[in-house]
Amino acid sequence: MEVALELRQLKYFTRIVEIGSVTRASQSLHVAQPALSLQINRLEEELGKKLLMRSVRGVTPTEAGLAVYKQAQLILKQVEATQLIAHQADVGPAGRVAIGLPWTVSSVLGLKLLQQVRTQLPSVRLEVLEGPSSVLASMLAQGKLDMAVLFDASVDAGLRMKPLISEALMLVGAHGKLDGRTATTLADVAALPLLLLSRPNGIREAIEREWAARGLKPQVVAEINAPSLLIEAVRAGLGFAVLPSCAMEGNLRRGEIDAIELEQGTLTRTVYLSTSRLFELTLATEHVHGVVEQLMQQAVEDGSWKGQWLEAPVDGVAD
What CATH class does 7-85 carry? Predict the structure, then answer.
């Protein structure tokens, strides 16, 4: 049976799934709700499958709907890429590039990335989203991001994970609160009043696994989901935190807090620059990828990101 699908129908369908509401999708798309519902009904008739389940809580995809949604994302991205290829033949790399940055990375990389893309790739519209590594990985796998900086190599088999930096986790305290020490152990840290990042968070999960393996019970006095508040609480002497250096580079440079190595620098995390295996990279995404990699290398070399660079030197990105 020949099925005549329209790009318009796929666009409408993906928007409804993403928003979870026909009413709000119609507002987002600037399409009247009856017209939107009619197109979805036609799509279901053409495919011979029920794609959406409607309830008082909103709209969710059926199993068939979820499969169609994933394929529709691929098709729409390929159409967008084709349009960009034609446009780039005249103006060079162009279009939207969405990148996810964990807050610990955003603080050291975000502003420089915006500046470099603005200068080197004027026809590229950069979209920066900040969030936990696990959330960014999920968005990348779903095609909502073009690339992301991640920490967990096992997050999704559908992602390309390029390891770039190995960085040590550090104990952080208010200025003068670490008594001139240069290193400490997880056993000593567990006895301190701790301010931990809220879950989901890879740093917290990693150190909690270590504590559990050693039979240690940490003294957690607060869990904080706001990065700036966590640093402020440490500065105010309310407790200690475990963070990588890139999360507090400015605070350390200004002498507002102190940080020392954990377990002689052996407790580390790996930083990956990641893309999806399911979606082809546009020319604009490839260029932004190069800029990000170059900036990460520079940050390690100038000491603003204390870690070990894992890749060969990165060539400069052409203007």
Answer: mainly alpha
User: Coil, helix or strand for 202?
Assistant: helix
Cα separation, 172 vs 12, in Å, equals 48
pLDDT in the model for residue 78: 72
What is the sign of the dihedral through the CA atoms of 249, 251, 255 and 261?
A: negative
Domain ranges of the chain: 7-85, 91-165+269-309, 168-268
Distance CA 228, CA 197 (A): 11
pLDDT of residue 87: 60
**Cα angle 168-149-136, degrees, rounded to a multiple of 5:** 120
Domains 91-165+269-309 and 168-268 share a fold: yes
CATH of domain 91-165+269-309: 3.40.190.10
The pLDDT of residue 251 is above 80: yes
Q: What is the pLDDT of residue 91?
A: 61
- pLDDT of residue 314 exceeding 70, the answer is no
- Is 230 within 8 Å of 196 (Cβ atoms)? no
d(CA 27, CA 235): 45
What would the pLDDT profile of 169-226 be if each residue is shown by its tens digit? 999 999 999 877 778 899 999 999 999 988 878 888 888 999 999 999 999 999 998 8
CA 307 to chain centroid, in Å, comes to 20
Residue in the block written with tokens 């807050």? 103
- The rounded distance, in Å, linking the Cα atoms of 297 and 300 is 5
Question: Which CATH class for the 168-268 domain?
Answer: alpha beta
Predicted confidence at residue 229, as pLDDT, reads: 92
